[in-house]
UniProtKB/TrEMBL annotation:
InterPro entries assigned: Flavoprotein-like_sf (IPR029039), FMN_Rdtase-like_dom (IPR005025), NAD(P)H-dep_reductase (IPR050712)
Domain NADPH-dependent FMN reductase-like: 5-143
Pfam families on file: FMN_red (PF03358)
Entry protein name: NAD(P)H-dependent oxidoreductase
Top-level taxon in the UniProt lineage: Bacteria
GO cellular component, one term: cytosol
Gene Ontology MF term list: FMN binding; oxidoreductase activity
């Protein structure tokens, strides 16, 4: 069955390794899955004073997440947690009260970092945050992906060493969406 997946990259950098990784990862999916990257760099800082009058960029992001069958969050780890830009979009899309876009949304989290523990701590925080919002997150397998030479090839594909694991991970995510999106 064809699906649409909203992809949120937690980094705003034009050089983001997580964006490159996300672009390579989605190439492992079958052709009937459409991936839509959600731009989060143009969102204002969340302020509940604006809840009744959300910015056009906020409405766009909420609509993109709402329309998707699933959400894939690909995040770096900044100072042992998630980047502020990612927390910002989570806060925006959780409001106004009673219109929480994350509730019952099916999703998964992944991310990469050159560090030894990769993005494990950021992912743990993110799991707690999104679970509290009611997001139906894939519970495992974890993918704390270390960004080493060859993870993403010059052609922008996933390198040979990580290919099998990440293919399995993505297949499980798409199956998770298939099973749970209908119930959500
Ligand atoms: C980092 N980096 C980092 N890496 C890590 O594994 N754990 C961490 O806590 C941090 N902390 C951190 C803070 C800040 C402010 C920056 C800018 C970077 C390094 C980080 O993994 C590396 O810069 C990646 O390139 C970030 O991913 P993107 O933004 O390129 O996708």
């Amino acid at each position: 069955m064809s699906k649409t997946i909203a992809v949120i990259v937690g980094s705003l950098s034009v050089k983001s390794i997580n964006r490159r990784f996300a672009q390579a990862l989605i190439k492992l999916a079958p052709a009937d899955v459409a991936f839509e990257f959600v731009e989060i760099g143009d969102l204002p800082l969340y302020n509940y004073d604006d809840d009744a009058n959300q910015a056009a960029s906020v409405k766009r992001v909420k609509a993109q997440i709402q329309a998707a069958d699933g959400v894939l969050v690909v995040t770096p780890e900044y100072n042992r947690s998630i980047p502020a830009a990612l927390k910002n979009v989570i806060d925006h899309a959780s409001r106004p009260y009673g219109d929480n876009t994350w509730n019952n949304k099916v999703g998964a989290i992944i991310g990469t970092s050159p560090g030894g523990v990769a993005t494990a701590l950021a992912q743990n925080h993110l799991r707690a945050i999104l679970s509290a919002q009611g997001t139906i997150l894939m519970q495992g397998p974890d993918a704390f992906v270390q960004f080493t030479e060859g993870l993403v090839t010059e052609q922008g594909t996933i390198g040979e060493k990580s290919h099998a694991y990440l293919q399995g991970w993505l297949n499980k995510f798409l199956a998770w969406v298939e099973t749970n999106a209908a119930k959500a």
